[in-house]
């Protein structure tokens, strides 16, 4: 299988564009906690993240297990069982954020202690 190099985006969930958050919800309708991965960042720190891939980008959405559970618990788009509501509509997010513009701001969004240097072996 040929590997396609895409720009890699490492970001916190709440700093993602709303449309990307909505797409992630559709990809993980049962919540995020069971899909977290861990990796060692460029500073040698173990980081947990939610992988998400689009046609243009490969995202690693930084979150701990506790944060993953809190996001779902406090998000009205998920029901009390932590499952995405059947009436969730992505169209309410479309057009609110420009991903290209957001990606250009990535270096400003990463604090020094969480600066991640993504390599192709992730």
Features of this protein?
25% helix; globular; alpha+beta; 18% strand
Can you walk through the features of this model?
With 122 residues, this protein is an alpha+beta fold. It has one domain. The protein is 25% helix and 18% strand. It has helices at 18-27, 65-74, 99-104, 106-109, and strands at 8-12, 37-40, 46-53, 58-62. A four-stranded mixed beta sheet has the order 1-4-3-2, with no helix packed on it. The chain starts with 7 loop residues before the first strand and ends in a 13-residue tail after the last helix.
**Whole-Å distance between the termini?**
16 Å
Q: In terms of structural class, how would the helical and strand content be classed? A: alpha+beta
The total domain count is: 1
* Proportion of helical residues: 10-25%
Order of helices and strands: EHEEEHHH
Determine the mean pLDDT.
79
Question: What's the arrangement of strands in the largest beta sheet?
Answer: 1-4-3-2
Low-confidence stretches: 95-122
Strand runs, count:
4
What amount of the residues lies in strands?
15-25%
Oligomeric state: single chain
Largest sheet: 4 strands, mixed
What Rg, in angstroms, do the CA atoms define?
A: 15 Å
Helix count? Answer: 4
Shape: globular
């Amino acid at each position: 299988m040929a590997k396609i190099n895409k720009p890699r985006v490492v970001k916190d969930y709440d700093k993602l564009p709303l449309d990307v958050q909505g797409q992630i919800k559709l990809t993980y309708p049962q919540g995020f906690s069971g899909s977290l991965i861990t990796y060692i960042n460029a500073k040698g720190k173990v980081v947990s993240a939610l992988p998400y891939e689009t046609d243009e980008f490969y995202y690693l959405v930084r979150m701990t297990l506790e944060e993953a559970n809190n996001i779902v618990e406090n998000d009205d788009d998920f029901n009390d069982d932590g499952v995405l509501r059947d009436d969730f509509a992505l169209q309410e997010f479309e057009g609110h954020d420009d991903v290209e513009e957001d990606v250009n701001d990535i270096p400003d969004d990463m604090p020094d202690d969480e600066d991640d240097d993504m390599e192709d072996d992730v």
